[in-house]
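Predict structure. Chain length: 71.
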Amino acid sequence: MPTMRKIKIIDHDGLRAEIDKIYERTSQVNLAKWSLRIAICILNVAEVDYKLIDEIVEGFKVNKSWQLGNA
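Prediction complete.
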């Protein structure tokens, strides 16, 4: 069963179910790595120089530290 929608969007139930299956099989660390890659991609598309924003840099550091079991 697909996950419940949290916002009102036009959605594709079959694709959502497929994504849910991938999510269930993927480790939390790999999901964190993927989420950082997506965040960086979005920041680049938005032309945000995230390396100059201390809160983002610190958040990425904490995430990477957590991935290594150090947070």
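Summary: The mean pLDDT is 91.
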